[in-house]
Fold this sequence. Notes:
Layout: E1 3-6, E2 9-12, H1 16-25, E3 39-42, E4 59-60, H2 70-80, H3 87-106, E5 132-133, H4 139-152, E6 157-160, E7 167-170, E8 175-178, E9 182-186, E10 188-191, H5 212-219, E11 224-225, E12 230-237, H6 250-254, E13 258-260, H7 280-294, E14 300-302, H8 308-314, H9 316-324, E15 334-343, E16 346-348, E17 360-362, E18 367-368, H10 381-399, H11 421-431, E19 432-433, E20 435-436, H12 438-445, H13 452-465
Parallel strand pairs: 1-9, 2-3, 2-10, 3-6, 10-17, 16-18
Antiparallel strand pairs: 4-5, 7-8, 8-9, 11-16, 12-15, 13-14, 14-15, 19-20
Bound molecules: flavin-adenine dinucleotide.
Amino acid sequence: MQNELYYDVAVIGAGTSGLYTALSLTDDYATTGGYACKVAVFSKKSVLGCSSALAQGGIAAVLDDKNDRFDLHYNDSLIAGGFENNPAALRVLVESAPDEISRLVKYGAELDKDRDGNYSLGLEGGHSRRRIVHVKDRTGLAVVNALWAAANARDNIKVFENAPVSDIIKGDGYYAVCTGTTLVYAKYVVMATGGIGKLWKYSTNSDIATGDGIYLAAKLGADIKQLSYIQFHPTGFKGGTDGRVLLISEAVRGDGGILLNGDYERFMDKYDSRKELAPRDVVSRSILAEQNAKGNDKFYIDISHKDPDWVMTRFPFIYGEVLKNGYDITREPIPIYPCQHYLMGGIAVDEDGETDTANLFATGECACTGVHGRNRLASNSLLEALVFPHRIADTIKKRGFDVPVIKDIAPPRVTDTNENIEAIQELMQKAFFVNPNIELCKQGYNTLDDTAISFCAKRIFEELING
Ligand SMILES: Cc1cc2nc3c(=O)[nH]c(=O)nc-3n(C[C@H](O)[C@H](O)[C@H](O)COP(=O)(O)OP(=O)(O)OC[C@H]3O[C@@H](n4cnc5c(N)ncnc54)[C@H](O)[C@@H]3O)c2cc1C
């Protein structure tokens, strides 16, 4: 080990939830008795390589008092989540949203506004009101850029880029975080490592989404739950050529996009009265049911009936990316198919983001606060990545900082999280795509070893097999 460094808090992950945690920790010295705590933030690859930077649609929040209410946002989230949501955590999520949007703007995010200077509010599947703040169709990139710039401007936040954390060892009152070349000692660890999409062959997630934080937290004794609560997004673009699936945002359906089967017929009304605006799990299952009924796996989304200039202005990123692959979204239906998109479960935490292991917190997609229940309502995820980091920071600040006495620790392990990744992706795609195939889960279980992705796959199979 070459370097040994000392921080108060080590945040593993530099997406929305990790950067927001670091900023909230260092926001106000008054709440830490005038002490400026030192925060180390780790990013496995470049900061912009996180899944947050790919987010398109936006962030849900009740901001239009005349037409919207907290209880409507709460109920929409419950309905999408199959009423399996944690009611207390969901209440916190919904009611904290307006304040966190204000703080996000103070950190520098410039959200789209209408001509009157009010936030331009989008509509997405499962929402009964327009309540999605956004930055065109690249909200996540704008958010991460703003948070990263704000973090870089603070002397007491250090962002380590291209620094994959391979092990964390628990000492007496401190953690030792290992990146291979550096050992960082910190009293508190916050896991903010994102999702597990790279377990699947077809996913919208970035390459970093291999479940590292979930694996490391489990090794530290934290409870992991509901890892089989996976959201399959109905509209992954099917005409792309590279590994990651381009998402066709929920907002396209929210703004009038319709779904067509292989015979170019609209079909959603056969499966749900909300048609294209049903929650994502319902739409994904409807697509597979329609495929079985018709014997045809071709599906399309069509927004070509809208004014082309408006489409290009509202969805410039999607328009440009799809055009690169030979389709013009303003003129024709474009091919789509469901793919893995989001993890609802993860490291079990309470409403302050704390795990059942002392001074170990988790937030963002790797954490399970229970706010999403069985299926996440669109645009509640970036919101979760703002609300709970703030609460984690407040909890840590209240608990206080002291200098731990570092003793000898066991040598850290350096693991390759991507080992066997292609074999596992093939397996997951067959064993659990929208609906699980329990026989294949049983067969696949015994082929898995002890890397982060294997650990996550095993836990998913265990949950599915045991019902
Ligand atoms: C294409 C797409 C569109 C989306 N659109 C929306 C949307 O419109 N609205 C919405 O609410 N949600 C959306 N989501 C979901 C949302 O973006 C994510 O759930 C959320 O951004 C996750 O934030 P995070 O901070 O938890 O994780 P991420 O942003 O993925 O960040 C994870 C961080 O952890 C780091 N990391 C991982 N492993 C290690 C390791 N071993 N060592 C060091 N660092 C590590 C990564 O480098 C990264 O910095 C979308 C997701 C995708 C993929």
